[in-house]
Amino acid sequence: MVLNYIWIFLILGGIIFGIIQAIFEGRVEVFSSMMAAAFDMAKTGFELSLGLTGVMTLWLGLMKVAELGGIVRVLAKAVSPLFARLFPEVPGSHPAHGSIVMNIAANMLGLDNAATPLGLKAMNELQELNPNKEQASNAQIMFMVLNASGLTIIPISIMVYRTQLGAANPADVFIPILIATFAATLAGIISVAVVQKINLLNRTVLFFLGGFTLLVAAVTWYFSILPAQQLQTISLAVSNLIILLIIGLFLVAAIRRKINVYETFIDGAKEGFQIAIKIIPYLVAILVAIGVFRESGAMPLLVDGMASLFAWIGLNTDFVAAMPTAIMKPLSGSGARGMMIDAMTTYGADSFIGRLSCIFQGTTDTTFYILAVYFGSVGVKRTRHAVGCALIADLTGIVVAILVAYLFFH
Asked: Is residue 122 scored above 90 in pLDDT?
């Protein structure tokens, strides 16, 4: 529903703004530019979707190997002590715990197809414990915010798009995304814990959150003291090495479980091909709307207005052109993806704006979509502090994404 309004706004807003420009500024050529942009973006969306098939096939094949190899269950088992402390109202023996950790583990590995069913299952199980069926329980809110904060270890789709759009090193945003998405998740957890009076100074919680926070802080500090050229070289090498080691871990886990790795990979690869084909109409639709809105002059006006505001505050404004992706992300995943692609197409995949748009895309998830789907699936109408805490996570992710982008790429 949100995407429907966004799509209508972009096209009708672009048309109206184009008419205003033609009447008051005499720019009658704007209509030709808008139509040309619509056709160009439709072509770009189609070609991009087809070009995704190879890389998407590769990654979903590997993800299938990871899933059947038991990586999701291992990760779920590892983080279950933490989630037991974050959901104190859920009895230790309740099946909701298993669904929650499996959902978060699947999200961390980028297994969207597996994560959503597990998430809906967890929300239904939490609803069984909810004394007020129309009002979100504390556990449901913590679960929703964890999903909305979008903690992801491997940003598969972003690296796929960067590959397709000609990035020299598609994985160079891996570490910046990891830092920003962890910051968003940590902010979400802390905001919910403050409202719900959950003790985060517990030994188990400090071990998990404190340990990972120190690790992220150490990585950030180390890269901050490196010369710019050396920073990019080392961060790229580390990013690629981590990804290769994770792939190796997937294969070893599958071999240990005596799974036919090749056939499993092929099964997952088939899903990748089908997904790449299915996204064609969605990608074409949003890119056409963005193209019309941009060529009407409305997008540059919006960006210039934001740049003037931040310049007035006294901030460097190089990041502003990437902000449409950040603004769109809580509202629509497809819309934000379109903004990210538009930024990389306009400025270049390896430009500061292109990379920052990718970091924004990978930092958090679509807050309002998750809110609607997860709470709607169980009939919850009063969401209490869920939206506020999720938006705190979003804002934290945006700020940290900008900071790490300046550190790594500016």
From this structure: no
